[in-house]
UniProtKB/TrEMBL annotation:
<dbReference type="InterPro" id="IPR044666">
    <property type="entry name" value="Cyclophilin_A-like"/>
</dbReference>
<comment type="function">
    <text>PPIases accelerate the folding of proteins. It catalyzes the cis-trans isomerization of proline imidic peptide bonds in oligopeptides.</text>
</comment>
<dbReference type="Pfam" id="PF00160">
    <property type="entry name" value="Pro_isomerase"/>
</dbReference>
<keyword id="KW-0413">Isomerase</keyword>
<protein>
    <recommendedName>
        <fullName>Peptidyl-prolyl cis-trans isomerase</fullName>
        <ecNumber>5.2.1.8</ecNumber>
    </recommendedName>
</protein>
<dbReference type="InterPro" id="IPR002130">
    <property type="entry name" value="Cyclophilin-type_PPIase_dom"/>
</dbReference>
<dbReference type="GO" id="GO:0016853">
    <property type="term" value="F:isomerase activity"/>
</dbReference>
<dbReference type="InterPro" id="IPR029000">
    <property type="entry name" value="Cyclophilin-like_dom_sf"/>
</dbReference>
<feature type="domain" description="PPIase cyclophilin-type">
    <location>
        <begin position="5"/>
        <end position="158"/>
    </location>
</feature>
<dbReference type="InterPro" id="IPR024936">
    <property type="entry name" value="Cyclophilin-type_PPIase"/>
</dbReference>
<comment type="similarity">
    <text>Belongs to the cyclophilin-type PPIase family.</text>
</comment>
<keyword id="KW-0697">Rotamase</keyword>
């Protein structure tokens, strides 16, 4: 169980709770925005639209297709923090400062992402539920037909 409830997220999936320890020491602006969106209920019901077996599960697009966001781009907060199993990092378009609301959770180590995406958290409990998320079509860049959704994403301090 994570200690700092203000910097802990509870991500509820169909299979159970995933506990994410946020890292404001690495990405303070991204953590603040994710908490703001979570508190507004933005992520509740949003699907995991891109899930690549052995790589990552991506979510946070209100359109469900990877093209949408909350409408507020964030400046990059790249660090040397490695992308390992359970790492939570921001998705973005080609420009480094184009992250918005979409994020991904790593299934495995992916060094090619290091210092290219803003790492903002780490799964500390429930990684088996992340691994259970329905995988997408490898021939369609992980696009998922009939994708699973986030039941809710809450700041733990608001739940406890």
């Amino acid at each position: 169980m994570a200690g700092d409830l203000e910097n802990t997220l509870y991500l509820e999936t169909k299979d159970g709770r995933v506990v994410i320890e946020m890292r404001p020491d690495l990405a303070p602006n991204h953590v603040a925005r994710i908490k703001e969106l979570a508190r507004a209920g933005f992520y509740d019901g949003i699907v995991f639209h891109r899930v690549i077996d052995g790589f990552m599960a991506q979510t946070g697009c209100p359109d469900g297709n990877g093209m949408g966001g909350s409408g507020q781009n964030l400046a990059s907060e790249f660090t040397e923090e490695p992308h390992v199993e359970g790492t939570c990092s921001m998705a973005r378009a080609g420009h480094p400062d184009s992250a918005d609301s979409q994020f991904f959770i790593m299934f495995a180590r992916s060094p090619h992402l290091d210092n290219q995406y803003s790492v903002w958290g780490q799964v500390v409990e429930g990684m088996e539920h992340v691994h259970a998320i329905k995988k997408g079509d490898s021939m369609s860049n992980g696009s998922v037909t009939d994708p699973e959704n986030i039941i809710s994403l809450k700041v733990a301090a608001d739940v406890a």
